[in-house]
Amino acid sequence: MMHNKQTIFISYSWADATFAQCVRNMVQAAGLRPWIDFERLDLEQPLEPQLSRAISSTDWMILLDSSSARSSQWVQLELELANQMKKPIVQLPIEPSNCSLHLCKIAKLPSPKSSQPVTSPS
Fold first, then answer.
1. How far is Cα 28 from Cα 24, in angstroms, rounded to an integer?
2. Which CATH number covers residue 69?
3. Does 78 reside within a domain?
4. To which H or E segment does residue 105 belong?
5. Which residues pair with 66 in a beta bridge?
């Protein structure tokens, strides 16, 4: 299936989930397709093959780089897979963790706690 929107894999630690949701909203608002685990992973199936397929099917990765991400075995696996597949990786340092709400305000997007969904521009 061909699509004209780039798909972006968002790699992050669960400790940074609020920030990751905000980045996901920004990616979607920019007209791109975000791939983020909480929307796509089937927790009843083995995770590693799902992550490998997901990274393979995306155009590039955003790595939310925090101390939590650097110590996460899953983030390290995702990064290793992306490097093996020669996917472009955009590293986004995110310390301290409370910067997520500031980023949403700067981008004029709803914060992750907002009940308003963000839709792609037509």
1. 6
2. 3.40.50.10140
3. yes
4. helix 99-106
5. none
Judge whether 98 lies within some domain: yes
pLDDT digits (tens, 9 = 90+) for 27-81: 998 889 999 988 888 888 888 999 999 999 999 999 999 999 999 999 999 999 9
Asked if 100 and 71 count as a contact pair (C-beta separation under 8 A), the reply is no
What is the C-alpha separation between 64 and 21, in angstroms, rounded?
Answer: 11
- Distance in angstroms (rounded) separating the CA atoms of residues 53 and 48: 9
Neighbours of 85 (CB within 10 A): 12
The size of the chain, in residues, is 122
Which residue do the tokens 């798909």 mark?
7
Domain that holds residue 39: 7-106
Q: Against a cut of 0.85, is the pTM above it?
A: no
- Tokens for 80, please give them: 């290793």
